[in-house]
Amino acid sequence: MALLELNGVSKSFGAIKAVTDVDLHVEPGEVLGLMGDNGAGKSTIVRLIAGNFLPTEGEIRVDGTAAHFHKPVDARRAGIEVVYQDLALCDNLTAAANVFLGRELKKGFGLLSYLDYPAMYAKAADLFAELKSETRSRDLVRRMSGGQRQAVAIARTRLSNPKIVLMDEPTAAISVRQVAEVLDLIRRLKHRGIAVLLISHRMPDVFEVCDRVIVLRRGAKVADRPISHTSPEEVTGLITGAIRAA
Amino acid sequence: MQHEASVARISDVTGLSENNAWQRIAASQAFWVALALIAICIVMTILQPRAFASTENFYNITRNFAFVGIMALGMTVVIITGGIDLSVGSVMGLVAIIAGLVLQAGYSWPLAFAAGAATGLACGLVNGGLIAYVGLSPFVVTLGMLSIARSLAIVFSENKMIYDFGPDAKIVYEIGGGQMFGVANPVWLLLLLTLITGWVLNFTAWGRYIFAIGGNESAARLTGVPVNRVKMQAYIVSALCAAIASLMILGWQGSAINALGQGYELRVIAATVIGGANLMGGAGTAFGAFIGSALIEVIRNGLLMAGVDANWQGAFVGAFIVMAVVLERVRGRRRD
């Protein structure tokens, strides 16, 4: 049984059809690459799965049951974590505060409960160490580099025990060394049986970590291939439309 | 390994961290405003040793800024979320009239205070509901409330002063006008509320959400922060602070007039902004609200003693707001 399934999913914004009749499935521990040119519908698919909006047509199934995510929190409850392209960080808060945003650790009960700073700093530091990032728990996000910000956003997904992590262009704005770190992290998620849906422009990244790649063109799926049965050249052709959908 | 060590050393040398408590204090506007406040007090003490540095003047100054200070605490919460509450002065007036009418009708003070608090709650609910759930601009909604609450105050009071506080009059006078250990009751209340607000902003998830909303509202929403609820609650807190200040002023002045609180919104916003709250949202402290309102009052008091027309205060408050925003702009630019 697939962990995540999209069956005939379409999404329109007014007259614009962003995604047309897309089928896709992700198995546990699988890294699935989602590629396509700008405006091909990659981000729309991420946002559909993440619960930012409901599909116009078709259905999304998680663990075989139909899912209706009205809010991002609904998707998170179903075991879906997202690293957004803009990372969704608050510049005015510390790294630890961002990691735990919406899921703060507390002590005490009811009205007398208060934030457990030491525990959050310690846990965030553990997560950053696990990501081999030099990000420090108490630093303000405002003062961080692109890679450190990325680490904060990724550390956030490690708080729960997600079944699937969606990553929207996680390597777009970081240094080469940090790209390798992010790819390592994706492999580590895979070893834990967590599925990863990787949205990327970067062909080398996709071919390094993905098991399978799906190519979108103008909102429709044009290819779904195991990485071992395709090549960067073919995928590029599919993205640009030089190779017709098979 | 060697590589990682060098990374750590670089960051230690540049000191680009917020680890150090002293650095954090020195970076806060409230700290520098507190220093300015102390400096002004020293200068005034030298210039007017008898008039300024007297126990009576200390009593008066602290009591005078207590009302603005209490409202500034609520305003700070709203401003941190990136909003603004222009209605606090009018809410203050309406609450005083409602509570005054209940007292005048011969009811007990707890009932009158409850009616006043309920009035504040209702105003906050309307403000917060329209801003958080309907998505209207805080400026427009609270400007509307500024007009509506003032108008209601005039209508309900039939444009008369309410000074007959019925059987519980003495208790009401004592609550707002009394003192403990040589410090006026409203000042004690301000101190208590400052501590509570500081605690809530720093040590509760709710406080954290207030900052998150002001920092990046869509990020807060995506990470599961109940943005709408928290935003609405911020306006309720602000209106309740205005109601509390109003009930205290009621006892101190011994009467309720429908013009009470007129123009207070600007003084309260000025106090908040001087104390380091950022009108763009995301920054502000309870201590800053306290110190900001103290500074405005000490300057007013000082001008008065220097023989300057007290009506200059409005010009100073206005200039302060603009200056604080310019300062924030300059600091923001340096940061980027």
Describe the protein:
The complex is a heterodimer of chains A (246) and B (336). Chain A has 246 residues and is an alpha/beta fold. Chain A contains 8 helices and 12 strands. In chain A, the strands form 3 sheets. Chain A has a 6-stranded mixed sheet with strand order 6-9-10-3-11-12, sandwiched between helices. In chain A, strands 2-1-4-5 form a 4-stranded antiparallel sheet, covered by helices on one side. The relative contact order of chain A is 0.18. Chain B has 336 residues and is mostly helical. Chain B has helices at residues 2-14, 21-26, 29-47, 55-80, 88-104, 109-132, 138-157, 169-177, 185-203, 205-215, 217-222, 227-253, 264-274, 286-305, 313-335, and strands at residues 179-180, 183-184. In chain B, strand 1 (179-180) and strand 2 (183-184) form a beta hairpin. Chain A binds chain B through residues 52, 71-73, 76, 82, 84, 86-94, 97, 101-104, 106, 113-115, 134, 136, 138-140, 142-143, 156, and chain B through 4, 7-8, 11, 16-19, 199, 202-205, 208, 211-212, 214-216, 218-225, 282-283, 335.
Model regions low in confidence, pLDDT < 50 over at least 5 residues of chain A: none
Helices of chain A, by number, come to 8
The quaternary structure here is heterodimer
Gyration radius of chain B (Cα, Å) is: 21 Å
* Number of β-strand runs of chain B: 2
Major β-sheet strand ordering of chain A: 6-9-10-3-11-12
Strand order of the largest sheet of chain B: 1-2
- N to C succession of SSEs of chain B: HHHHHHHHEEHHHHHHH
Major sheet attributes of chain B: 2 strands, antiparallel
